[in-house]
Amino acid sequence: MAKYEWFAEIDAMVGHQYGRIYAWDKVNEAMVRQWCEVMGVDNPIYTDADYAAKSQHGQLVAPPAMLQAWCLAGFHDELAPGSTTDNPYGVLKLLEAQGYPAVVAVNCDLHFDRYIGIGERLYYTTVFDDISEEKTTALGTGFFVTLKMVFLSETGDGKDDEKVGEMLFRVIKFKPANPPEKAKPAGSDNAAPKMLRPKPGISDDNRFFWEGCDAKELRIQQCKHCEKLQHPPAPVCMHCHSFELDYKLASGKGELYSFVVMHHPHVPPFDNPNPIGLIELEEGVRIAAGLIGVEEDVSPKIGEAVEVEFHTYEGELTLPQFRLVSTKESS
């Protein structure tokens, strides 16, 4: 595919390495403890100094998955002192100027060279690694942009700083396939526009699922080769890697594996509070869906029985939602 004339500026940026972005704080026990509490991690090598001293590390270490967290910008996007002012995301601004305003993260691959100890000061540098040719996806038409961040620990003794890990981060910068309608001029229509539920991205891989919803059927992808189930739908079996896939009708019954209740912000047209559940179906797979019939002052309980109900919105979008069986029976 021929590239646009304006693409030459972006092509010239490929391979450019940007300056350092420092961590605000040295690796410290307080942040490690809080991260472990939030993530539900209870490995004592991260929080128990006596235990860690007897381990192969000889000291407390930070969870490897915290690598990116140490160098994040502040709440107002301010960077730590000494950080570069050269914006590694400048390529995204250039694409925006050419009519590609939307962005979605595609994937993020982390590699860890070693554990990080308490007291180390980290920074990372970014390389604009690659940009694809123009691609058309279900989201719209745009470019896949790949950035590579290399994380290092300062030695402080004049020697080369030590690489501790790296992250490959890819986004798609695109023109939406179905851009929102432009707002009408003030005074042209006093009625506020009705907010509609966002429609799912439908592809050849998941079409069967949404067609099943229209037919009031809960269809779960099944491999023809190993007969195992998986959800959400994918182009290949996650168990045996076969491409021969079909689906199985689920009973629609299961139990509440986990849930969250969104109180803020209030996003029309969703109800507020908005309970969302992770359902473990009788067939053994889990599916995220809205919970209905939940009383505002009564919290759902993990393990409660649920059953699917199909509800249609705006006359064309049918969604599987789950009702607590006890709530249904008492109503």
TrEMBL record:
Against Pfam families, the record matches this protein to: FAS1_DH_region (PF13452), OB_ChsH2_C (PF01796), zf-ChsH2 (PF12172)
Which species? Aliiglaciecola lipolytica E3
Q: Which Gene3D superfamilies match?
A: 6.10.30.10, Hotdog Thioesterase (3.10.129.10)
Q: Which residues form the ChsH2 rubredoxin-like zinc ribbon domain?
A: 210-246
The segments labelled Disordered in the record are 179-200
What's the protein here called? DNA-binding protein
Tell me which SUPFAM superfamilies the record gives. Answer: Nucleic acid-binding proteins, Thioesterase/thiol ester dehydrase-isomerase
Per UniProt, residues of the ChsH2 C-terminal OB-fold domain are 249-311
Q: Which residues form the FAS1-like dehydratase domain?
A: 12-156
Report the InterPro entries cross-referenced here.
Answer: ChsH2_C, ChsH2_Znr, FAS1-like_DH_region, HotDog_dom_sf, NA-bd_OB-fold, Thioester_dehydratase-like
